[in-house]
């Protein structure tokens, strides 16, 4: 009887700690900085290059396989999974015109595209997302 109560208390405490961690991460996240200018209600379009489970870094936060990226000639859409939208991360559409600098970089994980927006925010696209931008031959 007491074992079940202790297990329930431990689960509640762990969920509470996780929730507080998510709120703290959101409070200081670059996603929050981008949301006022780039939040969108646009959804995925069949003409876009759609990459589910993409790896994207926004500021210092790495979203490993928890976002969908849609690329087209106008810009790119970063759409988080539902549980991230609940924590205050709306889908972002960033037009290519908002990009200041884009350059290929190397890390321990391999090559990635570092995008620096005109407002100073860094966005990194790894793996499939970076290769898809190369295939679209978008001049940034």
Can you walk through the features of this model?
With 140 residues, the protein is of the alpha+beta class. It has a single domain, classed as Roll (PH-domain like), CATH 2.30.29. Helices cover 36% and strands 38% of the residues. It is built from four helices and seven strands; from the N terminus they run H-H-E-E-E-H-E-E-E-E-H. It has helices spanning 2-27, 30-38, 82-86, 127-136, and strands at 49-58, 61-71, 75-80, 92-95, 99-107, 110-117, 122-126. A hairpin with a 3-residue loop joins strand 2 (61-71) and strand 3 (75-80). The longest helix is centred in the first third of the chain and has 26 residues, at 2-27. The termini are far apart. The model has no long low-confidence stretch (mean pLDDT 83).
Provide a concise account of the structure shown.
36% of the residues lie in helices and 38% in strands.
Reconstruct the topology from this structure.
Elements: H1 2-27, H2 30-38, E1 49-58, E2 61-71, E3 75-80, H3 82-86, E4 92-95, E5 99-107, E6 110-117, E7 122-126, H4 127-136
Antiparallel strand pairs: 1-2, 1-7, 2-3, 3-4, 5-6, 6-7
